[in-house]
Design goal:
70% helix, globular, mainly alpha, single chain, 416 residues
Length: 416
């Protein structure tokens, strides 16, 4: 046993993705260890500070950071499912009655809140609605992050990469918001990465994204490009089955009211004059165009102009097999940000994931890969500030990361 193995450093080196050849280069090994420790310690520090700020409340139980309950947006999932389970499904679609229910059972919000999800999300929230709000929030946060890291491990990610993702600003923003970014990222990355070897399982996971359909916009392109028709039809069947279960549990009214009330309401928020409260956390090309003064038709046209090459690049990535399914899945998640007009800061998990995968693929030594990692790592934390103070620049960050992944996958194919 060598000295590195006897001190436990060898295990860390293996977790960082350093191969036998790399271990003979002390500079590369040191760079990897320093990078890992730096980003891990930075992530832990940021996580502690943000959580402390989010859970510092006034005498009414309102977070001084958000102006809402400390569980923030998770309150919507909890309250919506709670009302649905008690037979008050109609309250979800009466904005004033819904807000009154939150004010009565949780705390009086300084900002407005409304139910914004498709009915299958009620199935997700139902088990948590049986608990108290804070207990449900803790369980929700732990469960969704565990699911995300479990999907990464199943897809071949190292324990070091999983550890870094858990303390990444993307995860921290998701925790602080009490949002579902970890869940949707788990389904998207897990489904796409699994679809090559386990087509039905991969497609079934993608179908579950009916809870937030815009997160799966590129999945059909991936499956069709790869001629993976089993995954394509498994996704369709999974989505249909999930919708039918939600109808059986909550009734057809949940769907009719969703299309009549909830969906138009959320579109109205998207299309408000720039810069509204909801748009401050937006990350789409559509929002970027609006920030430059574009009217609605022009903004949608710009979104379509960017979406088309993103779709073409996705087709190119999936047309051929790859030895790096996790990199391709992360790249697809990044490209999705360029396709959907409806995207927010808590949905940026794929940015640091792509950056970490690129850094590890170059043994943490490539200057360009480390620059991309640094940019993608910090971006979920500063995106809203940049949007408010300047213009929404997330589409440019996403485009740079997608290009880096495309190059890495091309070089992997050429060397095989």
């Amino acid at each position: 046993m060598n000295h590195a193995d006897s001190t436990g450093v060898g295990r860390l080196d293996r977790l960082l993705g350093l191969g036998p050849r790399t271990l003979h280069d002390p500079t590369k090994v040191m760079a990897a260890r320093v990078a890992f420790r730096f980003f891990f310690v930075l992530g832990v520090g940021v996580c502690i500070s943000f959580l402390q700020a989010a859970w510092t409340t006034n005498e009414a139980g309102i977070s001084l950071l958000s102006g809402k309950a400390p569980s923030w947006d998770f309150t919507n999932l909890w309250m919506g499912a709670r009302l649905a389970l008690s037979g008050q499904i109609e309250v979800l679609f009466d904005v004033e009655a819904y807000r009154a229910a939150i004010d009565r059972d949780v705390a009086k919000f300084f900002f407005n809140s409304e139910w914004s999800y498709p009915p299958p999300m009620l199935l997700v929230g139902a088990p948590f609605a049986l608990l108290s709000l804070n207990a449900a929030y803790i369980l929700w946060t732990g469960t969704t992050l565990a699911l995300f890291t479990g999907m990464l491990r199943a897809a071949g990610a190292s324990a070091a990469l999983c550890a870094l993702m858990v303390v990444s600003p993307a995860a921290i923003m998701n925790i602080v918001f009490g949002q579902n970014g970890a869940l949707t990222a788990a389904l998207l990355i897990g489904g796409l990465a699994a679809s090559g070897r386990w087509a039905v399982l991969g497609g079934a996971l993608i179908g579950l994204l009916i809870i937030k359909p815009h997160a799966a916009l590129l999945a059909p392109v991936c499956f069709l490009a790869a001629r993976n028709y089993r995954a394509f039809f498994a996704a369709a069947m999974s989505a249909c089955l999930t919708a039918l279960v939600s109808i059986a549990v909550f009734g057809v009214e949940a769907w009719t009211k969703f299309f009549q009330i909830t969906s138009p309401l959320m579109v109205s928020y998207l299309e408000e004059a720039y810069l509204s409260l909801y748009q401050q956390n937006g990350v789409s090309v559509f929002l970027f165009a609006r920030s430059l003064g574009a009217d609605l038709p022009t903004a949608y046209a710009v979104q379509a102009m960017i979406a088309l090459p993103a779709i073409a690049l996705t087709w190119s990535l999936w047309r051929r097999p790859t030895r790096e399914p996790l990199v391709r899945a992360a790249a697809t998640g990044v490209l999705t940000l360029l396709v959907t007009p409806y995207g927010y800061t808590y949905e940026l998990f794929c940015l640091p994931l792509a950056g970490l995968l690129l850094a590890m693929s170059t043994n943490w030594r490539s200057v360009s890969a480390m620059a991309l990692l640094s940019l993608s790592w910090v971006w979920p934390m500063v995106a809203s500030y940049v949007t408010v103070k300047f213009v929404p620049l997330t589409p440019f960050v996403a485009a740079i990361l997608a290009w880096g992944c495309w190059r890495a996958l091309r070089e992997s194919r050429e060397s095989s």
